[in-house]
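Priority: medium. Attachment 1 of 2:
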C-alpha cells in the first residue's frame, strides 16, 4: 500500500489501513520513544498513546512536509507530555558532579553501532537525556525546548552542554569514543 492509500483508508476508519500505518511506522517511532523512556515498557506505553493521537488527529495532517515527520512530532510531544505528567523531567544530576564534566570535540567513528550510543544516552539523567534528544537528534532550538519543557532557554543550553559532556565521558569510558578523534558524533545518532 502506498502512503496515500494508507492515509485515505485511515481517514475512512478502515482497519486494514490503520494496521498498515501502525506496522509501517511503529518500529521507527518506538525507537524515538525509547530514547525518552526509562525502560521498554514506558516506551511502548508512549508509543501506544502517540498512535492514539495520530489516529485521532489524522484529519489535521495537511500534506505539508513528510507524513513520517508529522508522526514523529506527535511522538516527541507525547513523550515530553508523559515525562512532565509523571514529573520525571525534574530528576537532576548532582551539580558537584556536573561541574567536573569536560567538553570535547571528539567523535564516534562511523563503524560504531548506533545502539551503543543510544544505550549511553539512555543512561543519562532524564533531564539531560531529554534536552540532548530534542536538540541534537530532533533538531529543536533551545527556545523551542524551553517552551516544550517549560524551562528557561538558558537551562536548556546548560542541560545540553552538561549532557554532551557526560555522554562523551561515558563514550570514552566504554571505548566507543577516542579522546583524539575528530568527527561529529552527534550527527551519527541524529540520523537514526
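Attachment 2 of 2:
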Amino acid at each position: 500500500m502506498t502512503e496515500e492509500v494508507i492515509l485515505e483508508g485511515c481517514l475512512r476508519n478502515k482497519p486494514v489501513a490503520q494496521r498498515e500505518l501502525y506496522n509501517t511506522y511503529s518500529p521507527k517511532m518506538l525507537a524515538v520513544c525509547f530514547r525518552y523512556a526509562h525502560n521498554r515498557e514506558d516506551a511502548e506505553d508512549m508509543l501506544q498513546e502517540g498512535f492514539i493521537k495520530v489516529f485521532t488527529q489524522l484529519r489535521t495532517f495537511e500534506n505539508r512536509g513528510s507524513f513520517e515527520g508529522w508522526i514523529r512530532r506527535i511522538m516527541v510531544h507525547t513523550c515530553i507530555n508523559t515525562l512532565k505528567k509523571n514529573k520525571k523531567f525534574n530528576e537532576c544530576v548532582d551539580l558537584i558532579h556536573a561541574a567536573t564534566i569536560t567538553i570535547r570535540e571528539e567523535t564516534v567513528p562511523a563503524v560504531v553501532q548506533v545502539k551503543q550510543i543510544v544505550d549511553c544516552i539512555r543512561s543519562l539523567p532524564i533531564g539531560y537525556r531529554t534536552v540532548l534528544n530534542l536538540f541534537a537528534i530532533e533538531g529543536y532550538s533551545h527556545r523551542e525546548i524551553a517552551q516544550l519543557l517549560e524551562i528557561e532557554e538558558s537551562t536548556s543550553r546548560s542541560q545540553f552542554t552538561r549532557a554532551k559532556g557526560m555522554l562523551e565521558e561515558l563514550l570514552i569510558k566504554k571505548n566507543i569514543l577516542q579522546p583524539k578523534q575528530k568527527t561529529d558524533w552527534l550527527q551519527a545518532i541524529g540520523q537514526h
